[in-house]
What does this fold into?
Amino acid sequence: MNASAVAVLALLGIATSAVAQAPPSSAPTAEQDHQQMMDQLGIKTLRPGRVNDVQAPLNAVNYDEAKANPYPVYPDPLTYAHGGKVRTASDWWSKRRPELAEIFEREIYGRIPATAPKVHWEVQTVDHESLGFTPTNEMRLLLPSDTLSALC
It folds into this structure.
């Protein structure tokens, strides 16, 4: 084999390895992926978090325990929002419990956006095992392709 053939093969090997090491250009950046997810969920802006400065004019972090409320005043579970009292079990289930559930959804848990895609998982296998003397259940879940395509 002559020197020119070796040089051509060496250049071809370098070019092939350079192409193989190049990152895929179709992958979105973290910022693009974040913006795409916000667009899908219909979120316009994120609320600002706490600023780790006690003297900050907005959203300052609180290190003063006197400002904390260790015993918050919770609403009476047997008093309606309008002030009336729950009288029967059916009133509880049909009226007051839904009021409390709505308060928790609005104030504590948060609401799922109406535009959020529906996700359906299928159980593929269930294994009943133990970890030491503690019984455990292991489930392998499968995300069907139709659900996956709806998410993307």
About this structure: The first helix runs from residue 3 to 21. The CA atoms of residues 114 and 149 lie 18 Å apart. The radius of gyration is 29 Å.
